[in-house]
Amino acid sequence: MINQFRKLNPVNLILLLAYTFFMRMAIFYEMPQQLNFDFLEPFARLLININLENAFSPAANVFFAGILVFVQSLIFNRIINNHNLLSKPSFLPALMFVTGSSLFMPFMVLSPALICNFLLIWMIDKFLKLGKSANSITTVFDIGMIIAIGTLIYFPFIAMFLTIFLALLLFRSFNWREWVGGLVGYLTVFFFLAVFYYWNNNLSSFYQIWKPLGNKFPSVFKINYNDYLVLIPVAVILILASLQLRENFFRSFISTRKGFQLLFFMFIVAAASFYLKPDFRTWHFLLCVPPGAVLLAYYFSNAKKRWFYETLFLLFVLSVQYFLFV
User: Fold this and answer.
1) CA–CA separation, 240 and 5 (whole Å)
2) For the chain, which terminal residue's Cβ has fewer other Cβ atoms within 10 angstroms, N or C?
3) Helix 231-248 to helix 289-302 angle, to the nearest 10 degrees?
């Protein structure tokens, strides 16, 4: 299967769509009785009143979530290929994106994090263009606005603001206008939100939006380790990918090295931002899928022994299915 997706073959579009729903067999087999979809944070509903909480039946919810993941994987695949992060263009980024988006049952339903992945993929594209742009102030401003829109959908997305500064450190020489540009872009969106709160005589509630930023990072975690055994093959592949990347690191283009460094930081920020939502759900970690999928794809793109990488991927898929059904 890996060898098939190493090629930019149009047939892979059909195979990828079939694979997307194959990885969702478990949730179709045990369909939840009710699935809620909160499209926006409560503080944003005063500005945008869209109520989709009970708009979809459970089957429709899962189906449309699958379609969104498929569309995201194609957009993601095109961006990674356009920026030459892998050894050659392929459908592997899309394949790994779909696989990563199927690790847990909560990943397979409509959620704010799933919607935010469109914004995250868009950000990755803009970040990777920073080093190629003569004047990146506009790009950084746009990224700031994208993060602000993501914050309206899912508040922990605000943590992605840190990645603007990390990207500027990696791709650009210091220019204070660029550093301020991202902040201005972010504040532009929330300025209009503040004005709307003011018009509705509710400005005091606007200040409550930022209270989660004062949360302390939890020192104690309650984890059922059996639920996360599926991550063992993921960890193995990530380790192999890291070793492969280290071996080829200084033979890669500088832009490629910086791109992988940025994606690593995005992965860490996305994972750590869960503490900004006291009642966070497992689907929060969908935000880790885009940066993580690139590293997974990098390994399978550069692996040499076909029998090994094909077997490894097969075991990976089978383990995901096993833990989903069990």
Assistant:
1) 19
2) C
3) 60
Residue 209's CB is within 10 A of a number of other CB atoms, namely: 20
For tokens 């935000």, name the residue: 287
Do residues 96 and 140 make contact, with C-beta atoms less than 8 angstroms apart? no
Measured torsion, CA atoms of residues 71, 113, 267, 321, in degrees rounded to the nearest 10: -70
Q: Which pTM value belongs to this model?
A: 0.90
Widest distance between CA atoms in the chain: 66
254 close to 170: Cβ distance less than 8 angstroms: no
pLDDT tens for 251-306 read 666 677 788 889 999 999 998 888 887 777 888 889 999 999 998 898 888 878 88
The SS3 assignment for 264 reads: helix
**Distance, CA of 206 to CA of 193 (rounded, Å):** 8
- Characterise 231 by phi-psi region: left (phi > 0), alpha (psi -120 to 50), beta (else): alpha
Give the model confidence (pLDDT) of 121-163 as tens digits.
999 999 988 877 777 888 899 999 999 999 988 889 999 999 9
Where does residue 84 fall: left (phi above 0), alpha (psi -120 to 50 degrees), or beta otherwise? left
Which of the pair, 229 or 317, is modelled with greater confidence? Answer: 317
